[in-house]
Amino acid sequence: MLTANGSHYRVAVLGAGMSGLCMGVQLRKQGVGDFVILEKADGVGGTWRENTYPGVACDVPSHVYSFSFELNPDWSHAFSGGEEIRSYCERCVETYGLAPHLEFGAEIRQLSFDGDRWQIGLADGRTLSADLVVSGLGGLHQPQHARIEGRESFKGRMFHTAKWDHGHDLSGRRVAIIGTGASAAQVLPSIAPEVDQVTVFQRSAAWVFPRMAKDIPPERRARYRRFPALMRLHRWSIWLAMDVLGTLSLRRGSWLNRRIERAALEFLEREVHDPETRRKLTPDYTAGCKRRCISDDYLAAFNRDNVHLVTDAITQIEPNGIRDASGQLHEVDTIIEATGFKPFDIHEYVDIRGRNGRSLQEQWRHRVESYRTVMAPGFPNFFMLLGPNSATGHTSALIMIEAQARFVTRCMRLLARHGARHVEPTADATDRFNARIQRDMKQMVFSGGCQAWYTDENDHNFTLWPYSALRFCAEFLRPKRSELKTGS
To answer: What angle do CA 416, 421, 423 make, to 5 degrees?
Structure first.
């Protein structure tokens, strides 16, 4: 426990979500006991602790959205709900003895490298230091709020899906949902039966694919408990199918991409009865350029008499509702922002300074880039799990997290082998990595100018990995000594 200023650790892990917990497990496996996991909240789970909106669930199959070292035979559903995933995180803490390393109520405000070690300042005024810092804060942390004039004037209740107001009863209310992404696709069908009216404000239609969600029968769960090898084989089969077919489906102009578009449009045709609503829900960009939605009941919700779709732009929020570009005022008493998160904004809420006081915010001012998704030149012994260009549009983020966490421990072994204290990537290696990533990104559909949150205003994609997850794991097998510089 952090009881006084001046505590020092070999490793400080930031965040107790899936990334932070994975890093803690890998450190324990390597015999590293001198580490702390700093968490601002009072519990573990990260995304799955913060997001508690109705219908919250993972859109990756349960047996892939779990760590390879902690397979779970007891998933109750093919696509697990948020509460079940959070319980899984808590079980990992217990199984791998991470509780003594967890420090709750520890919100990080500042990281600074003093030439030897990292100084860490917390929001409550406490300080500590560490030889290495591993950020498990992820790339999607702070909610992205809609920038709409007049929001302060609204007389009703307004909240973001990531900050769901469970004390606000939606029964019989007139509700607006701003956004049509992954969270909206889960919220809408969950609340539509209980509200009086719900109006969905859509900026662009999402590509929606059937989730084919189903419960996992008790007898199958019992079989997995009795024969873990069967469960591991099942996991591998899902991963292989998702990785191969998913990567191919995201290649620009590929036959498979055209095929999944046809499948999505056929699904839309079956699910939505009204032709005009169906037209409004038809995307005008290539499938995958923006995040694809997986849902069995989102599209069908638009058949309900109390569900309305608005595609005119929002001009302003007024005391009694939302006015669109056509001049119509949609009177509502509750506004739900399903507007996602700010991508890679860690430098906005944590002041991170590397060698010679160089800030990460300044380094990323014009372009967000990293070395192999986990490091940045000028920031020794600083690692990022789920850093820039490590997200995927087709498989489980946990595969990437595990590969990155193992890479961190291998860098630690590299330091020990060479009797060095610090490691950081060279600027040349970082430039070469990003040049390759951006060159090959042009072959993928998510570099297509559709104004997705994946990219900046110059269509520079700083979010996604343009290859397979298998290639990601292969590239992280061992640190490349020629691309790194070490020092004492």
So the answer is: 95
DSSP H/E element including 484 = strand 484-487
440-476 pLDDT tens trace: 999 998 876 677 767 777 778 888 999 999 999 999 9
Q: What are phi and psi of 445, to 5 degrees?
A: -70, -20
- Residue 260 in contact with residue 249, Cβ under 8 Å? yes
Helices 228-249 and 255-271: angle between axes, nearest 10 degrees: 100
> Are 243 and 394 in contact, with CB atoms under 8 Å apart?
yes
- By C-alpha distance, which of 136, 102, 49 is closest to 405? 136
Distance CA 91, CA 290 (A): 34
* Spatial separation of the C-alpha atoms in residues 199 and 185, rounded to whole Å: 13
The full set of domains in the chain, from first to last, is 7-143+342-487 (3.50.50.60), 151-207+251-339 (3.50.50.60)
pTM value is 0.94
Query: What burial class does residue 357 get, using C-beta atoms within 10 Å of its C-beta: 0-12 exposed, 13-18 middle, 19+ buried?
Result: exposed
Which of 237, 293, 238, 236 is closest to 260 using CA atoms?
293
